[in-house]
Design goal:
Elements (H helix, E strand, L loop, with lengths): L1 E2 L25 H9 L20 H11 L4 E6 L11 E6 L4 H13 L4 E4 L5 E3 L4 E7 L7 E5 L15 E2 L2 E2 L4 E7 L4 H10 L2 E2 L11 H7 L2 E2 L2 E2 L4 E7 L6 E5 L11 H5 L2 E11 L2 H18 L6 E4 L9 H7 L6 E2 L2 E3 L6 E4 L5 H19 L8 E3 L3
Parallel strand pairs: 3-6, 4-6, 5-21
Antiparallel strand pairs: 1-7, 2-3, 7-10, 8-9, 10-16, 11-16, 12-13, 14-15, 14-16, 17-20, 18-19, 19-20
Helix pairs in contact: 1-2, 2-3
Bound molecules: flavin-adenine dinucleotide (FAD).
The site of flavin-adenine dinucleotide (FAD) has 32 residues, from strand 4, helix 5, strand 12, strand 16 and strand 17.
């Protein structure tokens, strides 16, 4: 099997367990103390607001740096910089692990010290409230994005622990089927391009979804008649206390409309295996381009948003109900019901989470009044008001 950089790697389940990496910069505790006192310097990112940290501690910062390295820790970081809505107050700590062991150590540390933690991907389905997020935000994104083609019938069974030749982990291979493994932080769009290059089809439906693979498993993301359920073989997950790593099959993930067991059990998706099939790269790219074209025509991609705000209620379509109510173009602060796609709320500049929440409440109230339908947000509302 082959990793995207061409390096040969073992299949997912036999990949060597990397040792927890040492901090890339060996900072003295006193230096860290100084940085907590002055969060706009040193470890803090260039984007840090400089607000005095509530409840920050040099020990915590030291521990985070020891786990992920100084360059992968930000303090008091505005979440507006890390969400597609461009909205959200500061996270006390935002960390970017690159190894499974780092994720595990971070989670265990937080649990042991009764610190809240929040796990995010690319922040494309999040409304982070204006007060920000207390505790530690763990972002699994580009730094946690290795991938590999596991194999097809001719290659399967060559590495220790891989399925027997001719078998996938879902049963007998079809001759043109191939399993692909990827870590959860890989952006879906990137993964779709990489597999298309390899002549592997099946993920085209997801090529315009802007989040990570982990977020897509969590949400059972879908579009244009496809959903993650159609391609997932299994996902490797971590228990919420960081103690147990195990795999869940497609069935075990209990994937439904924008739902998975990952949500109910508060699991952390580390990696996933998908079953794709061979096709011509040009044909795959053409299908992706066509879907992208359709997306551009329908969605207000020119403004920050978190995609469709509401789940589709059984027997109804959200957009037409909002359209019929004449709510498109309604604005509260910087938040507007999109004039291009009634199911989207867009940030027209300077929107706060409070603006978006008021607009959501208005839409819910009017839809309930006119259609008797309860709209449930699809976007995840997190953090403090
Ligand atoms: C313009 C636009 C278009 C969109 N179109 C679509 C579409 O067509 N179809 C669709 O389904 N969605 C769509 N979305 C929504 C969004 O992209 C998806 O829901 C996506 O799967 C979210 O992934 P993320 O990495 O951004 O997750 P985030 O927004 O970072 O997180 C979403 C939830 O997933 C959890 N999560 C993230 N990663 C992990 C992980 N590794 N382990 C455990 N939990 C995790 C978070 O805790 C959070 O609760 C769209 C969004 C935008 C902005």
């Amino acid at each position: 099997m082959r990793e995207n950089n061409g390096r040969q790697v073992a299949p997912a389940h036999t990949l060597p367990r990397a040792q927890a990496s040492a901090p890339s910069q060996d900072l003295e505790l006193k230096e860290l103390d100084a940085m907590v006192a002055a969060p706009d310097q040193g470890l803090a990112s260039e984007h840090t607001s400089g607000r005095t940290l509530a409840g920050s501690s040099p020990e915590l910062l030291h521990a985070l740096v020891a786990i992920v390295g100084a360059e992968a820790v930000r303090i008091n970081e505005p979440m507006a910089l890390h969400t597609s809505f461009a909205i959200g107050g500061p996270a006390d700590y935002l960390v970017f692990p690159s190894e499974v062991e780092q994720v595990q150590s971070l989670v265990r540390y937080c649990v042991q010290h009764s610190l809240p933690y929040f796990l995010m991907g690319k922040g494309t389905d999040l409304l982070v409230q204006d007060g920000g997020i207390r505790g530690v935000v763990i972002q699994l994104s580009e730094r946690f994005a290795r991938w590999a083609v596991v194999g097809h019938p001719a290659e399967a069974g060559t590495a220790e622990g891989s399925p027997a030749a001719g078998q996938s982990s879902r049963g007998k291979y079809q001759p043109d089927e191939v399993e692909v493994w990827a870590q959860s932080g890989i952006p879906l769009r990137h993964l779709c391009e990489l597999v298309a290059e390899q002549g592997l089809a099946g993920l085209e439906f997801a090529s315009g979804i802007p989040g990570t693979l982990g977020g897509a498993v969590f949400m059972n993301a879908g579009a244009y008649g496809g959903e993650m359920k159609d391609v997932l073989v299994e996902a490797e997950v971590l228990s919420p206390d960081g103690q147990r790593r195990f795999s869940l099959s497609n069935e075990g993930l209990r994937l439904g409309y924008r739902h998975s067991v990952v949500q109910d059990q508060k699991l952390i998706v580390l990696a996933a295996r998908m079953l794709l099939h061979r096709d011509e790269p040009a044909a795959i790219r053409a299908r992706m381009a066509e879907l992208w074209q359709r997306r551009c025509e329908k969605q207000p991609l020119e403004y920050p948003s978190a995609g469709s705000v509401f789940k589709r209620p059984p027997g109804h379509y959200v957009g037409p109900m909002i359209q019929e109510l004449g709510l498109q173009g309604t604005k509260i602060g910087g938040a507007e019901v999109s004039t291009k796609h009634a199911g989207f709320i867009v940030n027209r500049g300077g929107a706060t989470a409070a603006d978006v929440l008021r607009l959501i409440a208005l839409i819910q109230e009017r839809v309930k009044e006119r259609f008797g339908v309860d709209l449930e947000p699809e976007i995840r509302i997190v953090g403090e008001p």
